[in-house]
Design goal:
49% helix; 5 strands; hpI Integrase, Chain A
Length: 178
C-alpha cells in the first residue's frame, strides 16, 4: 500500500536527437553492416531484436518480413525505402549470406556497442532505442498521422502505447508527458 502512495516519479523521456545528428552518426559509420543496421533502426523504427533476426529470405522488394515480431503476429512487414532495400540486397550479395543465415550476426550487446560507439564518434550519447524513437518522432514531425506511426512504423498493438512512448512531441525536440 505504501509503495502505491510513494511511487517514484517516472523518468522523463530522453531528448530526441535531431535528424542531422542521426544522419551524421549513420553517414560517419564506415562499416556497411553497422551502417545498415543503424539505418534500419533509425529510419524504419526496427527494434534491435527484430533487426538481429533478419535473414535474406526476409527481404522482399521494399519490405522486410519479421518472422517473430514482438507483437506475436506472424509475418509482420516493415516497409523500407528502395535505396535501403537495394543497399541491403547488395550487402547480402557481397557477403555471400545464405538465405537462412542472419544478415547481422551480432549479439544484442554487440549491436548496442555499435550504436554507442557510432554516437561517440560525433560526440553524442545514443542508444539503440534512441534510433527507434527518432524514427517515430521524425515521422510525426513530418506530418505522418500518429495512427500510421503507431501501426506501421512502430508496429504497436495499441495507439495508447505510442502516445506514452512519444509523449507530446514539440517542434523543439523536447517532450512533455501527461
Amino acid at each position: 500500500m505504501v509503495r502505491k502512495l510513494v511511487r517514484r516519479a517516472r523518468n522523463p523521456l530522453p531528448s530526441i536527437r535531431e535528424k542531422e545528428e542521426i544522419d551524421e552518426i549513420i553517414f560517419r559509420t564506415a562499416k556497411a553492416r553497422n551502417r545498415l543496421s543503424m539505418e534500419l533502426m533509425a529510419r524504419e523504427g526496427m527494434r534491435v531484436g527484430e533487426m538481429l533476426q533478419l535473414t535474406p529470405r526476409d527481404v522482399q522488394e521494399r519490405k522486410l518480413i519479421l518472422r517473430q515480431p514482438k507483437s506475436g503476429k506472424e509475418g509482420e512487414p516493415v516497409f523500407i525505402p528502395k535505396k535501403v532495400a537495394d543497399r541491403l540486397r547488395q550487402y547480402i550479395r557481397e557477403k555471400d549470406i545464405r538465405p537462412d543465415q542472419r544478415i547481422f550476426p551480432l549479439t544484442y550487446a554487440g549491436a548496442r556497442w555499435v550504436v554507442v560507439n557510432a554516437g561517440k564518434v560525433v560526440g553524442l550519447h545514443v542508444r539503440p532505442h534512441d534510433l527507434r524513437r527518432h524514427a517515430a518522432t521524425y515521422a510525426t514531425r513530418s506530418g505522418t498521422p500518429i495512427e500510421i506511426v503507431s501501426k506501421v512504423i512502430l508496429r504497436h498493438s495499441h495507439l495508447s502505447t505510442t502516445q506514452q512512448y512519444l509523449g507530446k512531441v514539440t517542434d523543439g525536440g523536447s517532450h512533455e508527458v501527461d
